[in-house]
Amino acid sequence: MKTITIVGLGYVGLPLACLCAEKGHKVYGFDVDKSKIDSVNKNESPIEDEYVAGKLRSLKNKIRATTDPKECIPVSDVVIVCVPTPVDRNNSPDLTAVMNSVSTVSKFIRQGALLVIESTIYPGTIEEVVLPILQKEKFNIQKNDLLVAHCPERIDPGNKKWTIEMLPRVVGGITKEATQAAADFYRGILNANVLELSSVKAAEATKIMENTFRDINIAFVNEMAQSFDKAGIDILEVIKGASTKPFAFMPHYPGSGVGGHCISQDPYYMIEKGRQFGFNHEFLKLAREINNNMPHYTVELLENELKKLKKAIKGAKVGVLGIAYKANVDDVRESPAYEVINILKTRGADVFVFDPHVQKESNVRDLDELLNKSDYLVLVTDHKEFKSMDLEKLKKHKILVVIDGRNCLDKEKIKSMGIAYHGIGRS
């Protein structure tokens, strides 16, 4: 049994803390957010995640959460940093949370311990940012008086199949000994393969590659959806057809925008690092431009339908379904819903918002109130509550237009009721 401290009890750190405790380790959770600490110590999840909530209930106080680093860091064999790494207003990487966390850890971590950074970072961050902080505390990393490695997180919130213990991982350390120590640790808690890479930079680059791949392919299908729309071709039918090819095609789907902490931000990390190297990532920039434009495109679809009805968007009563960036979670990080709402308001629409998973940011009580106050709908998040709603209610509440930003509603049924329907690449 090891003593482990997880730094950051969010969507990445909390599932990891639960897994470590479940495997019999003594686990501390360190976070600066006292509300999270209080929730965890009550065996309650501070995030909407059925997996985590169930684990916390079953573990019954086997995770000790604290805001005091002196309580947990000095006694830990393993310290894992799982804090956010967003981008700033200029889309430049913001490593403040990582730097602050490592600085705090460096003051209390004991010699010989394993320090793993799971936060998403650009290639070179460990060597250029983390090591100098550790060296200020007189650690000689090359001599392994502190084992430092990177294991990029692969959490997919709400995914019931690929839970944390089932996900293969990659690790890379500053030294071979650090790589081996990190690999041994993760092999001890996972029911999945752990691949050792030759360097910490390769591990850092792996996560950037994964999420940039997704961003580029989503941008591709978003552009194809806009083109097919003009040609009168249903993008979903084409994707279904292309998916019958048993090799060299992987389906991605269009939508009203890309959100979340990874796909919408990680490409900027590589764009910035490339700039530092003197390389211009034109392809990555273009993908970001296309995906960032999707909220605007979604609102333009509504405006086009309004023009057919000889209506204006100014003063239009528009209901927005969903705030979370993905289905069936309460995670709103970088959600395109905010941009959709902002554009609608800027253009003079009266906007009503409802998300059953993000009640605190909804401005109506429930779906019925939203339908009662709205003439037009824009679906941004494909929550199960929206996908399964009684579409007859749209007719009952005299909804005139539905813009389906996730292509998840029954197009033919909506149109059969005399309601205008437009999806992303399907009309």
Give the gist of this structure.
The chain has 427 residues and is an alpha/beta fold. Helices cover 43% and strands 13% of the residues.
Task: Give an overview in words.
The chain has 2 domains: 3-199, Rossmann fold (3-Layer(aba) Sandwich), CATH 3.40.50; 293-423, Rossmann fold. It is built from 17 helices and 13 strands. The chain has helices spanning 13-22, 34-41, 50-59, 69-72, 96-108, 125-136, 176-189, 200-231, 235-242, 266-277, 282-292, 294-308, 336-346, 367-373, 384-387, 392-396, 411-416, and strands at residues 3-7, 26-30, 63-66, 78-81, 114-117, 147-150, 169-173, 194-196, 317-321, 350-354, 376-379, 401-404, 420-423. The strands form 2 sheets. It has an 8-stranded mixed β-sheet with strand order 3-2-1-4-5-6-7-8, with helices on both faces. Helix 5 runs parallel beside helix 6. It is globular. The relative contact order is 0.09. The mean pLDDT is 94.
Q: What topology emerges from the helices and strands here?
A:
Elements: E1 3-7, H1 13-22, E2 26-30, H2 34-41, H3 50-59, E3 63-66, H4 69-72, E4 78-81, H5 96-108, E5 114-117, H6 125-136, E6 147-150, E7 169-173, H7 176-189, E8 194-196, H8 200-231, H9 235-242, H10 266-277, H11 282-292, H12 294-308, E9 317-321, H13 336-346, E10 350-354, H14 367-373, E11 376-379, H15 384-387, H16 392-396, E12 401-404, H17 411-416, E13 420-423
Parallel strand pairs: 1-2, 1-4, 2-3, 4-5, 5-6, 7-8, 9-10, 9-11, 11-12, 12-13
Antiparallel strand pairs: 6-7
Helix pairs in contact: 1-3, 5-6, 8-10, 8-11, 12-13
